[in-house]
Specification:
Radius of gyration: 27 Å
Low-confidence stretches: none
Structural class: alpha/beta
Oligomer: single chain
Largest sheet: 6 strands, mixed
Mean pLDDT: 92
């Protein structure tokens, strides 16, 4: 049935008894205390969680449905049973020897696996769960060998995203979490690089650019450790290319598509529009195949509002570049050097699509995380005429 057999490798002797390793249901751990504790908790904890979810459902009915709200006795009984189940789980973990690996591993595993249930059904537990994530010790080498390192970071920031707070408040919470994670690592170069690298990747993939910027500037400006050179370049995106900075000029290479037929335009600064959206994409980028046609559809609307578009393709093959760009109504260029080209390096581009909205002086106004966000910006500031926040 391809179910994995999990064992704890803590240095103790382990003895298993069963029909075969492929038939995990028949296997019993006959020797190895820590593995026996692990097995016991792995069997009992999910059942407790199921029961708690059922009691949560009933509690909601008895506190919100007028047919049941008058029944005080059942409400008290439900609360009492929930507390008993939670206490039973807690007592088991507290009973484990403090020097045992499972006394550390099981609570962390429980924390990491609980976030979806807590966000959806047990929202009252969100503050305590946040506090538990922030209390995780990223200097502890056990975390990196446990198989929980990536899950701990992903679950932590997933919960922050889904905690029900407004986005501005979520980003403030993320700053607190980043501080809690990185402050103890300032003297541990290897772990700082590992945590920063993975966390930055998580934030970028989820388009949490405000949190990415905070992380990048914190590490670049406050940490004295040596940062891995590739990571440092990615982080530098947020120092060199932050809103308010002036973007580098772009000299157009010979490989270009210019549907405007204005051959006096040889570089970015030759464009006379009030705003220019610089888009880095490629024919081999799956997301670009969604975003570029969307830009194509909106281009005439944007252009009427003073927004030009420049596509910088990271294609290496000239034929692929032309096939990708030939039908777009805006200028497309490529130096055919992918990530190693001057333009990509000057703009600190590490993924596609990447977009920067510039004003007529190449000042960075916005780093849109999607075409939808860019279109909303055009609608709010240019169509409706709201004042643009100049940094």
């Amino acid at each position: 049935d391809n179910k994995p057999l999990l064992v704890v490798l803590s240095g103790e002797e382990i003895e298993l008894l069963g029909e075969s390793l492929s038939n995990t249901q028949t296997i019993k751990i006959t020797k190895g205390k820590q593995n026996q504790w692990f097995e016991q908790y792995a069997q009992q904890h999910p059942r407790r969680e199921q029961a708690l979810s059922a009691w949560d459902y009933l509690e909601k009915i008895y506190t919100t449905d007028s047919l049941f709200t008058v029944q005080a006795k059942p409400r008290k009984a439900i609360l009492k049973e929930k507390q008993r189940i939670q206490k039973q789980d807690q007592l088991f973990l507290q009973s484990l020897p403090k020097n045992s690996y499972v006394s550390w591993f099981l609570p962390v595993r429980k924390l990491v696996s609980s976030v979806a249930t807590i966000a959806q059904y047990r929202t009252k537990e969100i503050p305590a769960t946040m506090a538990a994530f922030r209390a995780l010790d990223y200097t502890d080498k056990r975390l990196y060998k446990s198989g929980l390192f990536k899950d701990a970071i992903e679950s932590h920031f997933w919960l922050l995203e889904n905690c029900g707070k407004p986005l501005d408040s979520v980003f403030v919470e993320m700053q607190f979490s980043i501080d809690a994670m990185l402050t103890p690592l300032k003297k541990d170069e290897q772990k700082l690089n590992e945590v920063t690298d993975y966390l930055f990747d998580v934030l970028e993939k989820r388009s949490l650019f405000k949190a990415s910027e905070y992380l990048a500037l914190k590490v670049l400006n406050e940490v004295s450790c040596t940062i891995n050179s590739d990571l440092a370049r990615q982080l530098e995106t947020y120092r060199a290319m932050k809103v308010g900075n002036t973007a580098p000029d772009i000299v157009f290479p010979t490989t270009r598509v210019n549907p405007t037929n204005d051959f006096t335009i040889h570089k970015l600064s030759d464009l006379t529009s009030n705003y220019t959206l610089v888009v880095f994409g490629a024919s081999w980028c799956p997301k670009c195949k969604e975003e570029m046609p969307a830009i194509d559809k909106l281009y005439r609307t944007w252009k009427a509002q003073g927004v030009e578009v420049l596509l910088v393709s990271l294609d290496e093959d000239q034929k692929a570049f032309y096939e990708f760009t030939i039908n777009y109504p805006f200028i497309s260029i490529s130096d055919l050097k992918k990530w190693d080209g001057t333009i990509a390096k000057d703009y600190y581009v590490f993924g596609t699509p990447t977009m920067y909205l510039l004003d007529k002086n190449r000042k960075i106004i916005l780093r849109p995380n999607s075409v939808k966000q860019m279109d909303a910006w055009v609608d709010w500031y240019l169509v409706k005429g709201n004042a643009i926040n100049q940094h």
